Amino acid sequence: QVQLVESGGGLVQAGGSLRLSCAASGIIFRRTAVGWYRQAPGNQRELVARITSDASTNYADSVKGRFTISRDNAKNTVYLQMNGLKYEDTAVYYCKLTTTFGSDYWGQGTQVTVSS
């Protein structure tokens, strides 16, 4: 079955950087689209960045110019490089994989905490 494992979260000071990883298994990874979402306490889950099977990307306005999503199909992994972190970036970050058939799979989430 499809499994997603996120890693790379942690505690960082404002202005710092983190790189999140989302490793997939049980799927032909190169054919999938993957998105990073985040959810802060009391807020709805929101899309942060997404990358398609042909490496097209889109970003939430709040992270444009600071975050970069990329994929390595040889490693079945999508990355989210986060620079210039702000307090308001604090959230649990999840990756979601979408297959060509439209099925969605979520990871377990990784906590990102930015201290001001």
What is the CA-CA span between the terminal residues?
40 Å
Rg (C-alpha, Å) = 13 Å
Mass-distribution shape: globular
Order of helices and strands: EEEEEEEEEEE
The main sheet comes to: 7 strands, mixed
Features:
mainly beta; globular
SSE layout and pairings?
Elements lengths: L2 E5 L2 E4 L4 E8 L7 E7 L6 E6 L5 E3 L7 E6 L4 E6 L8 E8 L5 E3 L3 E6 L1
How does this structure look, described?
This protein has 116 residues and is mainly beta. It is 0% helix and 53% strand. It has strands at residues 3-7, 10-13, 18-25, 33-39, 46-51, 57-59, 67-72, 77-82, 91-98, 104-106, 110-115. The protein starts with a strand and ends with a strand.
In short:
The chain is built from no helices and eleven strands. It is mostly beta strands.
